[in-house]
Amino acid sequence: MRYELYYWPGIQGRGEFVRLALEEAGADYRDVARTRGGETKMLALMGDPRVKHPPFAPPFLRAGRLLIAQTANILAYLGPRHGLCPRGEAGRLFVHQLQLTIADFVAEIHDTHHPIGSGLYYEDQKREAQRRAEDFLANRAPKFLGYFEDVLARSGGTYLAGRRPSAADLSVFQVVAGLHYAFPRAMRRLERRVPRVAALAGRVAARPRIAAYLESPRRIPFNQMGIFRHYPELDR
After folding, report:
1. pTM of structure
2. May I ask the CATH class of domain 89-207?
3. d(CA 90, CA 214)
4. Are 153 and 196 spatial neighbours (Cβ–Cβ below 8 Å)?
5. To the nearest whole number, what is the mean pLDDT of the chain?
6. Per-residue pLDDT tens digits for 201-220
């Protein structure tokens, strides 16, 4: 099957979590909005009244006749089909649980630079962003990273759900990479407290297909339009 991924063409965003899974799986996929006229096609599909199960927003994935939206939902679909989750029900549900926790973490990361509203510029909420980022780095980031550190300590293997990587491991790598871009000073301090998470991120980055992807033009660089944004005044 050839998948069609729909996401905004100029940012990693939430679509990157899906891209990483597709790349690790060696799946045949087309990043539609990055093709000529693709963004127009994406928007047209979202507004098409003939679509029975319309997505609220990108990312969404076309898989045959299915149109699947929401990052964690897409990964729950891809996981058992491409060996990116355990075979047993308990393990599959646990990986999905981790993915939903990552979604919560990502939302809080985004809100460090847009704590009031996404429709406002960062410059319109800088004071609030500074307070939000300070609390995030002091309390929320250590809590989330500490949770994944504990999961790794209990897993019985080198990955979150055991000895084989799952979509959640790929997503934790993406979060760690994004936090290093957004908060390089703070992450040097925070990462010392979660050595298993740091090792996991390095392990994922070294996987052959992921390493090749990271060096390819398919990997969109971090930038100031995505979830992870670097504002030096927030990195304390």
Report:
1. 0.97
2. mainly alpha
3. 31
4. yes
5. 97
6. 999 999 999 999 999 999 99
Phi, psi dihedral angles at 5 (to 5 degrees): -100, 130
Each domain of the chain, given as residue ranges in start order, spans: 2-81, 89-207
Please report, for the chain, how many H helices and E strands are present, in that order. 10, 4
Mean pLDDT of 149-167: 97
Residue 1 has pLDDT above 90, yes or no: no
Q: Which residue has the tokens 């298993």?
A: 196
Pick the CATH number of 2-81 from 3.40.30.10, 3.90.198.10, 3.40.640.10, 1.10.510.10: 3.40.30.10
The dihedral of CA 170, 172, 175, 180: what is its sign?
Answer: negative
Separation between Cα atoms, residue 225 and residue 129, nearest integer Å: 16
